[in-house]
TrEMBL record:
GO terms for molecular function: metal ion binding. The lineage of its organism: Eukaryota, Metazoa, Chordata, Craniata, Vertebrata. It is found in: Secreted. It comes from Engystomops pustulosus (Tungara frog). Residues 21-208 form the Pentraxin (PTX) domain. Disulfide bonds join C52-C111. This is Pentraxin family member. Its cofactor is Ca(2+). It comes from the Eukaryota. Homopentamer. Pentaxin (or pentraxin) have a discoid arrangement of 5 non-covalently bound subunits. GO terms for cellular component: extracellular region. Belongs to the pentraxin family.
Length: 208
């Protein structure tokens, strides 16, 4: 029993509040079960939000990068994902799509801001702002959310077959704010990369 518990702890990764400066999550192979779960400090419904993360990958297929969802099994309220050279941002059932270029051998800093009243989305890749769009004005993102990095799109109800390739690469510097548009601060007040509560599952390790 003790060994089983220990084994489970190793498989599931650990749960902690840690300073992750200079560290990356390495999603080292495609796997249905791989994901990192972060616990954002959301205490009331989100009016305005910004999330930034840095992503490095050489194989873009159908990759969920970041989503907010009420629990392990619910559909995401907010979802940022990539299919080949398009980024998708969804809030509930509504979505916007951005075309990018394929390029590898380079980190991408991706930031998304969303305003509750107007629904205006600001989307930046490496500091370049895409044309602004409007997404689901007035939708409330409730406070009981988990933030999930890198899980299969099938788990969000997008595509259904098991064994679908999932994100392979690195993700670091995830920060989130309850403000929009992005303020160019380094660390978020809802997710702060210096003080992160996280759990890893599947083929992911945290590496300094
Ligand atoms: C979470 O946010 C609330 C309100 O902004 C703040 O008072 C609290 O200290 C924060 N908790 C943590 C663990 O960061
Ligand atoms: C949300 O963002 C808009 C645009 O920046 C701002 O006018 C509004 O006051 C913000 N609302 C809250 C509750 O922060
Ligand atoms: C999510 O799933 C993990 C195991 O896969 C479990 O340990 C955790 O308690 C679950 N969290 C919620 C909120 O259901």
């Amino acid at each position: 029993m003790k060994i089983l518990t220990l084994l489970l702890m190793v498989i599931v990764g650990c749960c902690a509040k840690e300073n992750l400066q200079d560290a990356s999550f390495l999603f080292y192979k495609s796997s249905d079960t791989s994901r990192v779960v972060l616990k954002p400090n959301i205490t009331e419904p989100l009016i305005n939000m910004t999330v930034c993360l840095e992503v490095y990958t050489d194989v873009v297929r159908r990759d969920s990068l970041f989503k907010l969802q009420a629990n392990n099994y619910s559909k995401p309220h907010f979802h940022l994902y990539q299919i080949r050279d398009h980024y998708y941002i969804t809030i509930d059932e509504d979505q916007v799509i951005y075309k990018t270029t394929k390029e590898t051998m380079r980190w991408r800093k991706i930031c998304v801001s969303w305003e509750y009243v107007t629904g205006v989305v600001h989307f930046w890749v490496n500091g370049n702002l895409f044309p602004r769009r409007v997404l689901n004005p007035g939708f409330l993102i409730y406070p009981d959310s988990l933030a999930v990095l890198g899980q299969s799109l099938a788990s969000a109800g997008l595509g259904s077959y098991r064994g679908e390739p999932t994100f392979v690469g690195e993700i670091k510097n995830v920060n989130m704010w309850d403000r929009a548009p992005y303020t160019w601060e380094t660390y978020g007040n809802i997710i702060d990369w210096r003080y992160v509560e996280y759990e890893t599952y599947g083929a992911v390790i945290l590496y300094l």
